[in-house]
Design brief:
- The chain has 29 helices and 19 strands.
- With 700 residues, the protein is an alpha/beta fold.
- Helix 2 crosses helix 9 and helix 15 packs across helix 16.
- The radius of gyration is 29 Å and the shape is elongated.
Length: 700
């Protein structure tokens, strides 16, 4: 989840070339041109580009973001502190005007290109998602959007927003809303205390921020790695480390012996290399693991402040490295949209082809750097602070407007009325795949929210929940209790079961939890990137609750393609299948031993693409969204196998989803799937009669 985004690569003053001959020899933090820092940019963006190109060896290339956070903290802190020491004040308007001139014009160009390409290449549903992302990117809040979603960026295609990479720029800009104010406050305090030195006090403040942020990063990564990856609070310490390097006086760095500086630079490069080559998507990140690339980058910058004639500094200062570092911001902006759109255009794109796409993104990057980034940066007409701020506001407004226009121009369909939304009833007349539709229910853009009362009522337990509270539907005073038990693949049956419970006079107890298998086995939580211990606790509570309720019938549903854990490691292959199957069998036996009749739902076929998105762009050719049943069953049927072993009846929804071996996206004007492989509430309701016939007649 965490490893798929690069940093926002800013073009800050201290690495710009100066004309003075002695400027390139200046070793102080931020004092004069630092070719090694410019080359370090190339290292950071290079590992990210290689990672996104799919180069197998660079399995931890996402650490480029950490390197750039350190660089940004170093450069910005140096700029602000030198301004404070030189003039006794910091011009916030001047600071933000410079940031706006350097960053926002290129950003506006890329956002405009993304909006255009989304209109040309994406389905209406995908464009609505991109519209929200464009606005979030333009307003520098996209990192919080991604933290709330805990998006898995390795799942390309419909889930890969072409502007997700703006999250790190958002982190930096949020940090710099606060950091200049803190420097000003400490500077004012030092002045009031008789002109005390600013740098030591700032170092204490930055050190405190770094310690608190690092501790929080370690904690949140252990709990919710997906959200931790995007949080400003878990990344602040990385910028603070760069700032601490900048606060050390230049003369102090120069006192480092040459050999020590040389060793420090090489050690820093080695640390980044170990992280880039040794980490993977399975590494809990950022957490404590981020310390390796962060301290490596800090070591390189510190070594360069001491001496520029070391082997490491010379390597970073070569012309090719400096060129890549110089265009790194523009190249970063362009490479990820290229990857995302290439994946949309060619879903089966190979690693070699993806590498070509990433390399080709250099062309718009170089043009943007030459025609937009540099001209605006050096423009005398835009040099006045007021004009720079107006430019920044205009670029931000343009990005937000692009998001609104993208949303407003998405076409929609007419909602099918109840007489038109036949759903499964249409299969009585024909099992032929529906080829087109002029009305739909639900509408494609609303399909993901078409999930049933248990979600709207808050009865489907969240991933943090450990107590099985559940909800009761139907006749709450009935002597017949039926329990629905499992994960979201169980919860998707609830719309039909609630109606059946009302008709049969059942007391329906719904005990379902997000991503939590009823099988008695610890599984991997994809959002938290760790053992799903909350599921273990909730499962035990649910089984105990079912026994206490003396349920007459327990209906068990499960997503079969989970990853079982053993000793903190994910199992795979036959070992994983056996662990999941045995765990499900153990649960089914326990439920039977507690006195209940048990019936299991066979897991449903998984569509190979996002169905609502496909339907929204293919209403005249819905066959393009259908898929073979055999393709949808490309996983081990652990629930069915466990049920057979334990003598439990199985209800298989497959024939009602895939008549004749083909799984339509739309049946009787009703969209079948939502949110990946889940059934829409609307279609499930049309299956009520069929499901009622499958359930034991003796119950109720």
């Amino acid at each position: 989840m965490h490893g798929q985004q690069a940093p926002a690569l800013e073009a800050h003053d201290p690495t710009e070339r100066r004309s003075q001959p002695d400027a390139q020899r200046a070793a102080g933090p931020g004092r004069g041109f630092r070719p090694d820092v410019e080359g370090l940019r190339a290292v950071a963006v290079g590992v990210v580009l290689l990672y996104h190109a799919g180069v197998p060896l660079i399995s931890g290339g996402y650490v480029g973001v950490d390197v750039f956070f350190v660089i940004s903290g170093f450069l910005i802190t140096g700029l602000l502190v030198r301004e404070l020491e030189r003039s006794g004040r910091i011009s916030l308007t001047g600071f933000y005007a410079r940031r706006a001139r350097r960053l926002l014009p290129s950003t506006a160009v890329v956002l405009a290109a993304v909006a255009l390409l989304a209109w040309l290449l994406m389905s209406p549903v995908e464009r609505k998602t991109v519209a929200k992302d464009l606005a979030a990117a333009a307003l520098y809040v996209v990192n919080w959007q991604q933290a709330s979603l805990a998006v898995d960026y390795s799942a390309l295609g419909a889930e890969a927003s072409p502007v997700q990479h703006f999250w790190s720029l958002a982190v930096e800009e949020q940090f710099y809303l606060v950091w200049p104010l803190l420097i000003i406050a400490i500077g004012w305090w030092c002045t009031r205390r008789g002109g005390k030195a600013v740098r030591p006090r700032l170092a204490v403040a930055l050190g405190a921020i770094a310690v608190a942020s690092f501790a929080y990063s370690v904690h949140l990564t252990q709990q919710e790695a997906g959200a931790a990856y995007f949080s400003t609070f878990t990344r602040g310490w990385e910028l603070a480390v760069g700032g601490l390097v900048a606060l050390v006086p230049a003369d102090a760095w120069r006192r480092l012996p040459g050999r020590l500086a040389g060793g420090l630079a090489l050690a820093g490069l080695a640390a980044i290399a170990v992280a880039a080559f040794g980490f993977s998507d399975e590494t809990p990140f950022p957490g404590s693991a981020a310390a390796l690339p962060v301290l490596g980058a800090a070591a390189i910058i510190a070594a360069g402040a001491a001496a520029q004639d070391t082997a490491g500094a010379k390597l970073l200062g070569t012309a090719p490295m400096r060129y890549v570092g110089r265009i790194s911001y523009s190249w970063y902006l362009w490479h990820w949209p290229a990857v995302a759109f290439a994946t949309v255009k060619w879903p089966g794109i190979t690693t070699a082809q993806l590498a070509v796409v990433v390399a080709a993104s250099w062309v718009p990057a170089a043009l943007t750097h030459k025609l937009v980034e540099n001209p605006v940066r050096v423009s005398r007409a835009l040099a006045p602070v007021g004009r720079g701020l107006v430019l920044g506001l205009a670029c931000t407004a343009a990005g937000a407007l692009l998001g609104w226009l993208t949303w407003a121009t998405v076409p929609t369909m007419k909602l099918a009325d109840p007489s038109q939304a036949l759903g499964a009833a249409a299969l009585q007349d024909s099992t032929k795949v529906q080829e087109s539709a002029s009305v739909l229910s639900p509408l494609p853009e609303d399909a993901d929210a078409d999930e049933g009362a248990v979600y709207g009522n808050g009865c489907h337990a969240g991933q943090r929940d450990t107590e099985a509270e559940g909800c009761v539907y139907g006749d709450k005073k009935s002597d017949t209790t039926v329990a629905l038990f499992g994960d979201s693949h169980a919860a998707q049956f609830s719309p039909a079961l609630i109606t059946i419970a009302e008709e049969r006079g059942w007391r329906l107890l719904v005990l379902t939890k997000s991503a939590c298998t009823p099988a008695k086995v610890t599984i991997y939580n994809r959002q938290y990137e760790r053992d799903y211990t909350e599921c273990d606790d909730w499962r035990a509570s649910a089984v105990e609750r079912i026994a206490a309720e003396k349920a007459d019938l327990v209906l068990v549903g499960n997503r079969d393609d989970q990853a079982a854990m053993r000793g903190g490691d994910k199992l795979d292959g036959d070992d994983n299948t056996a662990a999941l199957r045995d765990g499900m069998a153990a649960t089914l036996r326990e439920l039977k031993e507690n006195g209940a009749d048990v019936t299991a739902f066979a897991d449903i076929p998984y569509p190979p693409q996002d169905i609502p998105s496909c339907v929204s762009g293919a209403t005249d050719q819905l066959t393009d969204c259908a898929f073979p049943l055999r393709e949808g069953l490309g996983y081990e049927q652990v629930t069915t196998e466990a049920a057979k072993r334990t003598g439990v009846d199985v209800i298989d929804l497959g024939p009602e989803l895939c008549p004749g071996g083909t799984c339509p996206a739309v049946i009787g004007n009703v969209i079948v799937y939502r949110a990946g492989e889940h059934i829409t509430e609307t279609y499930m309701q049309t299956l009520t009669g069929w499901l009622n016939d499958q359930l034991p007649e003796s119950v109720g």
